[in-house]
Structure formats: C-alpha cells, structure tokens
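Many introductory courses stop at the sequence. We go one step further.
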Amino acid sequence: EPWLWARYLPAADLVLHAGLQGVGKSDSIMDVVGCVWELSRDAAGCRKIQTALDDAQSEQEREALASELRGQVAKAACCPNANFVLQRCLTTLSPDRTQFVFEELRPRAVFIAKNKYGCRVIQRLIETGDEWQVQELFSVFKEHFYELASHAYGKFVMQSAFDNAGVRELTESLAVEFCSRAVQAANCTHANYVLQRAIQVADGDCVRRLGEELLPFAPALAKGKFGCRVIQRLLDRCELKQADEFCDAVLGSFFELATHPYGMFVVQ
C-alpha cells in the first residue's frame, strides 16, 4: 500500500504523488498546496481552503492539506479565520488522520475551550473524535469542570460534552460534579445552561441528587432569571414523589410566584 509511506512526504509532494497514482485533483486544491497556513489566517483565504477540502476527491488529498497545519494547530484554533479551516478538517477527515490536531490541542485544551473561536474547534473534536480521544479530553475537563461551565465560551464545550452520547458514562460522571454546586450553577449566567443540559441527559439517580440539592432553595430559585429555567427542567425529569416535594415548596409562595415575572413560569 503506497500510502503507508507516502503520507510522510511533505504536503505538496503528497498531493503530487496522489496525481501520479491516478487520484484526481481539482484546481482549488492545486491553488492552495504549500500555503494552507498562510491562507487560513485570511478571511478570503480560509474560505478558499475550506472549498479545497470540500472539493478534494480523496482522504489523501484532504490529509495533505490538513498536514500543513502541523505545529500551528493551537494558533489556528484561536484565530478568527483559521479556526474554520480546522473545523472543516475535523469534519471531513477520519479521526486517525486528524490525530495530530488532538495531540496539539490536548495540552492547552482548557485554555482553548475558553477562547471565543477555540471553543468551536473543541466542540468539533468532541463530536468527531474517537471515543478514546474524547475520554482523554473529558479527563482534562473534569478537573476544570465548573471553571469551564461558568465561562462565557467554555459553557458551549461542556454542553457538547453532555450531548455526546457515545461516552454516556463520562457525561454521567460530569453530571455528578454538579451535585455539590447545583445552587451556585443554577444562579450563574452561564453555568445554568450546562446544568439544564445535565438534568436533561443524566440518569434518574443523578437527577434525584440534583433535586435534593436544589429543593431547599426552590422558591428563591423560581424567582431567578436563570434559576426558574433550572427548576422547570428538573420538574420535567424528576420522579413523581420529588416533583410533589417541589410543588409543596413552591406552593408556599404561590401568589408571590404567580405574579413574579420569572416565578410565573414555574407556577405554570
């Protein structure tokens, strides 16, 4: 199999080798070979690279283009333009061919997850990576769980983590992390969205534990801009007995909540 050795050629030679082996090449690919990183940082250039990745007729051609980003992945992830190219590489190539992306992002995963552009790249990596790659990312994120969940951009990464059904046991372990900080998260501008997602996907036991943490504060949370949403999600998921307990707690402030701009949604 020639590609076992050909993939170690420089990017331009790799595409040339593809041509010699009879693999077709589009003009859009030949126009960008050798200058992928330079073009990726430009608004017009990054669109040209994405078009080339879409037009490529084989994985080898796409890999040749993506390989030009080696050593620049962390910079590309945080670049307003190059992040789109990196995302396209992740969605058009198989995980084994983008292993270098994972290896370069992993040491700075937390920092990149809190970046306005980098968070998108981490999301794509969670969605497209092999299970073992996602597991390694989760092990890093678990140590910085609330830091990410309460961050303006990190919250999107944590929401993606809960959406990843392929590693359900890991999402369950992340949901448990919320139990000790449920009230704090329910009142947080950003973390409340992650908490809502956790309630939606967690198993019954975890939902029950979250409910136990939130129950004593139910009336106050119900009047909060963010807390009211969490209580609504919890009422949708918790068992009937626990739902009755929440109703009893809320009914003590029924008229106050019914006329409150946020509490009225919980009463309904």
